[in-house]
Amino acid sequence: MKNIVILISGSGTNMAAIVRCAAREGWDTLYGARVAAVISNKPDAAGLQFAQKEGIPTQVLDHRSFVSREAFDAALVELLAPFDTPENPVLVVLAGFMRILTPGFVQRFAGRLVNIHPSLLPAFAGLNTHQRAIDAGCKVAGATVHHVTPELDHGSILAQAVVPVLPQDDARTLAARVLTQEHLIYPRAIAQLLVRYAIK
């Protein structure tokens, strides 16, 4: 069975969308894949409750307990180790995981580490994407699924979705419209990865 481990920091709505899609489409039968665990860097992340209700093992690795980013990432590698073997390498999915990973971690999971970003990359990498799109006068905005590389929000693009920026939009309303598309494209991009790269 191919293992997918999802990293979250908050509500985990993209994680939930992936879990629901995997169940609905039968990823275990189609791809021999399962969401094997959900890991959060925040003990109070609401997404943990959803995962637990779905019977998915959860773990918390509080980043505040570590003296450095490198120490945190080393501990995260240890948590991922049971799901990661040469015969069955893990797919690591960032779903609202609000930590910048070290180059060493990224290189270890190169090609198997994916993220979703709430803009049409390469536009508006980083934070505050929706307000920046509105301030720039953009007519469209959207979301991007991409491979993670050491350079923030610059990995190869796997999928994108476009939404209109409406005249009355503020950052909150635009974010809500983008999020509905994130929930559609992220599971689809992961399914395509399971096929394209034959992760096993």
Please bin the fraction of helical residues: 25-40%
Top-tier CATH class: Alpha Beta
The side-by-side strand order for the widest beta sheet comes to: 3-2-1-4-5-6-7
Average pLDDT = 96
- C-alpha Rg, in Å? 16 Å
Q: Uncertain regions: pLDDT < 50 for 5+ in a row?
A: none
Strand content: 15-25%
Q: Which overall shape is indicated by the principal axes computed on the Cα atoms?
A: globular
Major sheet characteristics: 7 strands, mixed
* Oligomer description: single chain
What does the model show?
The protein has 7 helices and 7 strands. By secondary structure, the protein is an alpha/beta fold. It has one domain: Formyl transferase, N-terminal domain (Rossmann fold), CATH 3.40.50. A 7-stranded mixed sheet has the order 3-2-1-4-5-6-7. The radius of gyration is 16 Å and the shape is globular. The model has no long low-confidence stretch (mean pLDDT 96).
Features:
200 residues, alpha/beta, Rossmann fold, 7 strands, globular
Give the SSE layout.
Blueprint: E1 2-8, H1 13-25, H2 27-30, E2 33-40, H3 47-53, E3 58-60, H4 69-80, E4 91-94, H5 103-108, E5 113-117, H6 129-135, E6 140-147, E7 157-164, H7 171-196
Parallel strand pairs: 1-2, 1-4, 2-3, 4-5
Antiparallel strand pairs: 5-6, 6-7
Put the structure in a nutshell.
The protein is of the alpha/beta class and 200 residues long. The protein has one domain: Rossmann fold (3-Layer(aba) Sandwich), CATH 3.40.50.
